[in-house]
Amino acid sequence: MSIHTACIDACFDLAMESRGEGGLPIGSVLARGDKIIGRGHNRRVQQGNPILHGEMDALRDAGRQESYRDTVLYTSLSPCMMCAGTIVQFKIPRVVICENLNFGGNEQFLIERGVTVEVLNEQRFVDMMARFIEEQPALWDEDIAE
Amino acid sequence: MSIHTACIDACFDLAMESRGEGGLPIGSVLARGDKIIGRGHNRRVQQGNPILHGEMDALRDAGRQESYRDTVLYTSLSPCMMCAGTIVQFKIPRVVICENLNFGGNEQFLIERGVTVEVLNEQRFVDMMARFIEEQPALWDEDIAE
């Protein structure tokens, strides 16, 4: 299995793990070369922590890095403004977004700042997120500050 | 003492607390009305956690909130792109920046998105940060991804 495929699968598994814990089904990994160096998922419910979106949790898990210029961030759902700002601040050059049909809008912000953005829109990710939003609309609104 | 003055003093004290722990001297508080509801400081060194800038740590400390529309975020140093993105994402309407002479540049990003930005440039904050940058340039560069 390629690292690209492994990262996409890991995002899905981490999202489902979070869902199983009663949390938001959003997962993310940070990769360098052929290794995953950070794994994360949303922990708003699990830790009562509003800043731990999936992407932030993957960066937390990776710990201190000298540079992010040789890394790729994978995320099950398109990054919000917090996570997009973080990608730019950390100078992560490439982001793979597994789906942006249920949430998106910051792709252009990233592209304008030199980030390469790849959107997959794999059906399993779209379905997982749509089901969650239908089942738990209040929790979803809280997570995107609506 | 007014809540405004109390928040500014708390930012300074939290920054100094972090410095005493060997960390970056950047502190932040989130206030609602006349109460401080979140206190934080940079924890890159202390927890090996690159996402815990002062502002992020204050939001973590405040925990889940229904809304941030009636809150004010105070920070000892001007917010980086991660923290500025977070302020916009969380819809925090007002930010008080104790100094932006040693680091800044995202004030316009915030203002353009409707955030009220107040810059104090109190000398004790400017001096504290300048001294740290002079003493620990490598750690400072790491924190701003230079």
Written account of the structure:
The structure is a homodimer of 146-residue chains. The first copy, chain A, is an alpha/beta fold and 146 residues long. Helices cover 45% and strands 18% of the residues of chain A. Chain A contains seven helices and five strands; from the N terminus they run αββααβαβαβαα. Chain A has helices spanning 3-20, 44-47, 54-62, 81-89, 107-112, 123-135, 137-143, and strands at 27-32, 35-41, 71-75, 94-97, 116-119. A five-stranded mixed beta sheet of chain A has the order 2-1-3-4-5. In chain A, strand 4 (94-97), helix 5 and strand 5 form a beta-alpha-beta unit. In chain A, helix 6 packs across helix 7 (137-143). The longest helix of chain A is centred in the first third of the chain and has 18 residues, at 3-20. The first copy, chain A, is globular and about 40 Å long. Chain A starts with a helix and ends with a helix. The relative contact order of chain A is 0.16. The model of chain A has no long low-confidence stretch (mean pLDDT 98). Chain A binds chain B through residues 44, 48-52, 56, 59-60, 62-68, 80-86, 88-91, 142, 144-145, and chain B through 44, 48-52, 56, 59-60, 62-68, 80-86, 88-91, 142, 144-145. Chains A, B: One of its GO terms (biological process) is nucleobase-containing small molecule metabolic process. Chains A, B: This is tRNA-specific adenosine deaminase. Chains A, B: It comes from Croceicoccus mobilis. Chains A, B: It is found in: Cytoplasm. Chains A, B: InterPro entries: APOBEC/CMP_deaminase_Zn-bd, CMP_dCMP_dom, Cytidine_deaminase-like.
